[in-house]
Amino acid sequence: MNIVLLGFPGAGKGTQAEKLVEKYDFRHISTGDLIRQEIAQGTPLGKEVEATIESGNLASDDMIISILVKAIKDEKRGVIFDGFPRTIAQAEMLDAYLARRGAQVDAAVLIKLSEAEVLKRITSRRVCQECGAVYNTNAEGYSGKCGKCGGALYIRPDDDERSARHRLEVFHKETQPLIEYYERGSKCKGVDGSGSIDSVFKEIETALGLSKGEEK
Ligand SMILES: [Zn+2]
Asked: pTM for the whole thing?
């Protein structure tokens, strides 16, 4: 089963993807991470992407697809796509690639949150300067210091309210067409992202039909 994860920044896509990987042995593909890895390894493709980004442009769909295909071509597990596709063109390229392997995107999971909730989550996020662990000032047990290494916490520059609002706008513009794309194929599954991590996970399991037969 291949899944596309859609949701506002701050909706917990990464956390939910990790939980799916842990319980159901998916491969979690974050295109942002893949691109950073490719650049760090200095492959020809990585160099091309790096030069493109340095010149102030975005990596092209072809570059991103090439990186993605390299990462999943021998993958036997189901894949969770996180941060990809970003455009209809990318969604179509992904469908075409998977179809050649006799596979498909089986579902696009949209983690839904109100804008007010998203803004609250983003602006209350704090990151450890030392180890990068992420905290939320509204979380139980928040102490203002890193619970793992004791490091000081800071607000990432793109987590202030103005940047957060801008990211929301970008998200709407980018994601709405994708939601419609997957709705046309009846693949879009909306889940309520406002509950706890575990309750959102249960909703995702139900939406994907994963929890069947496990009910006690
Ligand atoms: Zn830390």
From this structure: 0.80
